[in-house]
């Protein structure tokens, strides 16, 4: 299912407190467009019947049934896109994990004989 980075969770908690929405859940949604792409959205909302409730890193989330399969394996992150410009992004889990791993280096100026 959906996961949050530490940065995203911290920013959501900060936004909820600043907006007076600390008692509401963050609704996360996904919709498949006619061209096959998926559009993601989110906003503070009250839970509805049939929603999947989640609590991740101190953040209460709700996901409606139609969005659940499209959010499976998605990571919600809060990143600096350009200097001073921060935003939430939705990334497939495999891409998020790859971005977190440092590049391996041999230390010999190249990896011709490297076993890593």
Explain this structure to me?
The chain has 116 residues and is of the alpha/beta class. The chain has one domain (3-100): Sandwich (Hypothetical Protein Aq_1857, Chain: A), CATH 2.60.300.12. The chain contains 3 helices and 7 strands. It has helices spanning 6-18, 68-71, 93-100, and strands spanning 3-4, 25-32, 38-45, 52-56, 59-63, 74-82, 85-92. The strands form 2 sheets. The chain has a 4-stranded mixed beta sheet with strand order 3-2-5-4. Strands 1-6-7 form a 3-stranded mixed beta sheet. The radius of gyration is 18 Å and the shape is globular. The two termini are 32 Å apart.
The overall number of domains is 1
What is the multimeric organization of the chains shown?
single chain
Strand percentage: 35-45%
Q: Strand tally, please?
A: 7
Shape: globular
Strand arrangement across the biggest beta sheet: 3-2-5-4
**What is the rounded distance between the termini?**
32 Å
- SS summary, helix count: 3
CATH architecture: Sandwich
Q: Please, what is the CATH homologous superfamily?
A: HesB-like domain
Query: Could you name the CATH class?
Result: Mainly Beta
Secondary-structure-derived class: alpha/beta
Task: Report on the biggest sheet.
Answer: 4 strands, mixed
* Estimated helix fraction: 10-25%
Q: What is the string of helix and strand elements?
A: EHEEEEHEEH
**At the third CATH level, what is the topology name?**
Hypothetical Protein Aq_1857, Chain: A
Rg result: 18 Å
Mean pLDDT: 85
Low-confidence stretches: 102-116
